[in-house]
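Example (one chain per record):
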Amino acid sequence: MAGDVQSGRGRAETATSAGEDTVASQRREERLASHGVASGSHEEGGNPADESAAVSTWKLSDGMPVDEAGDPMSQAAINRMKRVFKLPGVAKLRALLRNEPASSLPAGYAAVHEAVLRQGVRFPLLPNLQILLCEFDLAFGQICPNMWKLLIGLNGLWRMSGCEGSTVAEVLHFYELVYVKRKGCSGQVNLSRRTGAPRLVENPPDSMSPWRATCYFTTEGWEYDATLNKERPTHRIKSKFQPIRARLHFVLMPEEECRVARITDCWKNRNLIYGY
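Predicted structure:
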């Protein structure tokens, strides 16, 4: 009798999980569509082959000034990183040209720092991470290493708790988007824990010291590959730095409320679950 009850419960949980995944996917597509024009338009950035393009200080539409990345990384260093981090051959990497701004790139380009790869980011991006960046409406190179660390940690925590990867509404339930205040990082974005929210990812390392000293570009193979899965986001990640949308905080759908409650409960009982 007990076995029948447990079996029935397992089937019910599986069906519930499948339903949650479907609703969450639909909700994500609605949010992506709400951005209007697809990100990474051809109007963004300049011609990467034009070495005469001047690097000038500019501001986002909300008045936030943008600090450019440091010196270009040598091709030898780029090749070393590709070996060390086992980046696939489809990821096309190249060094910055003289006076080429990493904050304003052509469509399909991304500025990459070694510190980001050290946080566990790999190419092509995981589908869930690509969707989150599209929903945040930010450029890849705008995300600081600590934010990448949090996103990857949250993605793993959600899956360990039996949930699909976190949605933008769920992430913003616990965190808010803020500009990095460290000198030389103006225009970069991080996640800050909301007042009263649990510390879901504890003791994130301080990877903010001179992580922007060098930079390189990836031009192909870094976004989620549509040929591998039909669930590719319909919008691409932006290639030009964007302002934080003021007071961005989505209302949780009922399914998301259940998932947030499950995550919070797992965090409260982490000593029993993970044996800390």
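Caption: Strands lie at 58-59, 65-66, 71-72, 92-95, 110-112, 175-179, 189-193, 214-220.
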